[in-house]
């Protein structure tokens, strides 16, 4: 914008640009989490502006009727949009009218039947599954695999966005779509619930599904706080006493341990005669500071949300849980949460092994994203980005190559077998492993904040 500064200056005039409906617009903390701005600092926020206008309209002090030039029933909405877009006649405000609702508008969201091309009618020989979450990771990675697993009957998919739920149901062959997570967790024909939502929702949804008597697969992280972890553990124990057949099956999406080359690396070291030294490096790349992963309530951070993969992988490779954790970030404690994704995590394991998790956001994505190095007992292994594995022992070097596979298919196939009663598969991931890895990840963030090491009970 171009202004005559002198005209404004000599009249001490102020120029203010309105932020849409008012301060708070486009701020997720204000709009989605409900954190209001104090009136003493911001008198007219987005909400208070709307409240004032509605109050004026309610008292008859503000009438918008003179602004309305056209009215259309919602069934003719396309004609209304054509009027606006084509401009065949002058208009000011266009109103869409709705017929009287024939149902309770305050009732719980309804499920809708899918017109899925790949949909199948109920098959009692298969286990029914429900899915919470239809975001990018779900659509690109998990749902395509679930569609190809023949042991599952895809019953219902739920998402906060109704359109995304319906689209996922149609594309991946689910019978129902919903916006109500309770409809997924309590559906009588759902045996297991897959939780693929944002991190801050995981703990609540895990508990809800467990209390409904379902087996659960939840993407990492299982939860964001120690209190949530304790509540999940209590719920798991309580459900085990109430459910016929014992404790429900709960798995976390630590898929790296199921990658084909990781399994070869694990077999190479076998049962190590002594402690291992393990180095795991993530060349993660930066994400915008306003990304949801950085929101404490929604995403937690990238340590709990992604570096936890490294914690689990280290524990799997050495066969021992972490018992002590210490972490440092670039810039130190003074850098705050903004540098959590440029850090080193040092773990000591129960067998004496030591592992480091390097999580770097400041690198270049042109180079491989992950590298794992393991040494011990006179042997060494290097895994580059889940494509190339180099093994060395007694001067002999072997190389294994594979297509890029981080274990997503492997973990879901194993969970499928576990649900169908395969005891070997059920033992591939235990509660104690998931608990110790989750706790280590939470305490790593605390160590970054406080500059202290922490024991992992």
* N- and C-termini, Cα separation: 61 Å
Number of helices: 14
Strand count, sense and barrel status of the largest sheet are: 9 strands, mixed
CATH class of the largest domain: Alpha Beta
Named CATH architecture of the largest domain: 2-Layer Sandwich
> What's the CATH topology label of the largest domain?
Dihydrodipicolinate Reductase, domain 2
Description:
- By secondary structure, this protein is of the alpha/beta class.
- The protein has 4 domains: 41 residues, no CATH class; 31 residues, no CATH class; 141 residues, Rossmann fold; 201 residues, 2-Layer Sandwich (Dihydrodipicolinate Reductase, domain 2), CATH 3.30.360.10.
- Helices cover 33% and strands 21% of the residues.
- It is built from 14 helices and 18 strands.
- It has a 9-stranded mixed β-sheet with strand order 17-16-15-14-10-13-12-11-18, with helices on one face. Strands 3-6-5-4-7-8-9 form a 7-stranded mixed β-sheet, sandwiched between helices.
- Strand 12 and strand 13 form a beta hairpin.
- Helix 8 runs parallel beside helix 9 and helix 11 packs across helix 14.
- The longest helix has 20 residues.
- It starts with a helix and ends with a strand.
List the helices and strands and how they pair.
Layout (H helix, E strand, L loop, with lengths): L4 H6 L17 H4 L14 H13 L9 E6 L3 H10 L6 E5 L14 E2 L13 E6 L3 H13 L3 E7 L3 H11 L3 E3 L2 H5 L6 E4 L6 H10 L3 E4 L7 H17 L7 E3 L7 H10 L7 E7 L18 H17 L3 E8 L12 E8 L4 E7 L9 E7 L2 E6 L3 E6 L2 E6 L6 H12 L3 H4 L4 H20 L3 E2 L2
Parallel strand pairs: 1-2, 4-5, 4-7, 5-6, 7-8, 8-9, 10-13
Antiparallel strand pairs: 3-6, 10-14, 11-12, 11-18, 12-13, 14-15, 15-16, 16-17
């Amino acid at each position: 914008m171009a202004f005559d500064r002198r005209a404004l200056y000599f009249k001490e005039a102020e120029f203010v640009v309105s932020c849409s409906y008012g301060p708070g617009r486009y701020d997720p903390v204000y709009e989605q989490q409900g954190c209001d701005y104090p009136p003493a600092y911001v008198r007219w926020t987005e909400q208070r502006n709307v409240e004032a206008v509605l109050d004026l309209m309610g008292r008859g002090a503000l009438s918008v009727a003179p602004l309305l030039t056209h009215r259309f029933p919602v069934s003719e909405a396309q004609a209304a949009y054509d009027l606006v877009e084509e401009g065949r006649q002058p208009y000011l405000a266009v109103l869409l009218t709705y017929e009287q609702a024939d149902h309770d508008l305050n009732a719980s969201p309804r499920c809708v039947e899918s017109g899925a091309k790949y949909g199948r009618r109920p098959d009692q020989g298969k286990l029914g599954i429900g899915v919470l979450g239809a975001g990018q990771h779900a659509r690109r990675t998990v749902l395509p695999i679930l569609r190809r697993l023949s042991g599952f009957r895809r019953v219902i998919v739920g998402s906060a966005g109704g359109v995304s739920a319906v689209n996922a149901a149609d594309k991946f062959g689910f019978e129902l779509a919903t916006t109500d997570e309770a409809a997924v967790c309590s559906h009588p024909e759902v045996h297991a619930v897959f939780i693929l939502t944002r991190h801050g929702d995981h703990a609540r949804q895990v508990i809800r599904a467990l209390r409904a008597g379902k087996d659960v697969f939840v993407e990492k992280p299982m939860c964001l706080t120690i209190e949530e972890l304790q509540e999940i553990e209590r719920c798991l124990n309580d459900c085990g006493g109430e459910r016929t057949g014992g404790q429900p099956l709960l798995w976390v999406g630590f898929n790296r341990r199921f990658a084909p080359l990781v399994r070869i690396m694990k077999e190479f070291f076998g049962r190590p005669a002594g402690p291992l030294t393990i180095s795991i490096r993530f060349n993660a790349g930066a994400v915008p500071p306003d990304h949801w992963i950085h929101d404490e309530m929604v995403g937690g951070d990238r340590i709990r949300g992604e570096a936890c993969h490294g914690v689990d992988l280290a524990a799997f490779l050495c066969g021992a849980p972490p018992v002590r954790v210490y972490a440092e970030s670039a810039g130190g404690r003074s850098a705050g949460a903004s540098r959590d994704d440029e850090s080193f995590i040092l773990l000591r394991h129960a067998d004496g092994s030591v592992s480091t998790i390097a999580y770097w956001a400041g690198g270049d994505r042109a180079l491989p994203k992950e590298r794992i190095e393991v040494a011990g007992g006179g042997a060494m292994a290097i895994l580059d980005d889940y494509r190339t594995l180099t093994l060395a022992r007694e001067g002999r070097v072997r190389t294994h190559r594979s297509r890029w596979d981080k274990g997503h298919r492997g973990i879901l196939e194993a969970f499928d077998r576990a649900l169908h009663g395969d005891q070997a598969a059920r033992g591939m991931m235990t509660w104690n492993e998931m608990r110790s890895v989750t706790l280590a990840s939470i305490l790593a963030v605390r160590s970054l904040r406080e500059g202290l090491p922490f024991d992992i009970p």
